Fold:
Amino acid sequence: MPEMPEVEQVRISLLPQIKGKKIVKAEVRLPRMILHPSVPEFITGVEGRTVTDVRRKGKYLTLLLDNGQYIMAHLRMTGALLVTSREAPEPSFAKIRFTLTDGLDLWFTDIRTFGTMCLCGGSDPWTDKGYASLGPEPLSAVFTEDYLLQRVKKSHQMIKCFLLDQHKIAGLGNIYADEALAAADIRPTRYTDRLTKKQVHALYEAVNQVIAQGLRNHGTTFRDYQDADGHMGNNRDFLLVYGRKGQPCTKCGAELKQIKVGGRGSVYCPRCQK
DNA sequence: CCGTCCTCCTGGCCGC
DNA sequence: TGCGGCCAGGAGGACG
Structure:
């Protein structure tokens, strides 16, 4: 599932391919993926516009247009943005097609169809609530150890749930949350207000470290994630716990366990993580 | 504020 | 081989 490093990899691969290209035509094959405005307004709003930049915040991607508006996309679990040449076969699970200049197509594909798109900005006051309330991103100047300490202290919640809450930290999903907890030797079920200062320090470092490593490795590919060139990331080879239930802990050799925390599968080492 | 449950969805995998 | 059933999970909403 695309989390911050995967979405960033999509952004990086997408930008040089679509920057300066004009959207000649938009085709929405699954109307409910368009959150705002109506599908006809979305189509007429983007047709004729040129993409000037591609940005990312948390797991959201924004395609800036030359009139100040922007297309915002969330890939959720299985969404992908792909660029193909006109002669290439249509990608599988294509849900939205943007015909671009220079013989290119930008596709929003999605197997499970939880992905969303919207058109906003300009004189349109509508905002995506999730986007508007995003917390600071790992590796950013506003994500400080003191910020984490303060948020953790005033919250009473299992740390795994805390890490997945995009209002508190933007960009972590199930993979990187489990990885950060493993790197910091903290159990997913530990309550935030019971973390020691030392643990908060370790967690702060771990969150930044696992995200940086994910970015360096062009993301983690399990099943569905690929970037705009159709490439996979290789961070999977470096994972400590995610997807490794029943296998030995890379640090101590104990068998990794899987439990449910907040409805999410959570893999951890019962010996290392406290 | 927090937890739990539900919803959206379908490919992949397991057991029979 | 084929089929039923379950799982994966990001986010938002209802409810206690």
In short: Chain A has two domains: 4-132, 145-268. Residues 197-216 of chain A form the longest helix (20 residues). Residues 1, 3, 59, 74-78, 112, 114, 129-130, 164, 166, 173-174, 222-223, 263-265 of chain A lie near DNA strand C (CB under 10 Å from a C1').
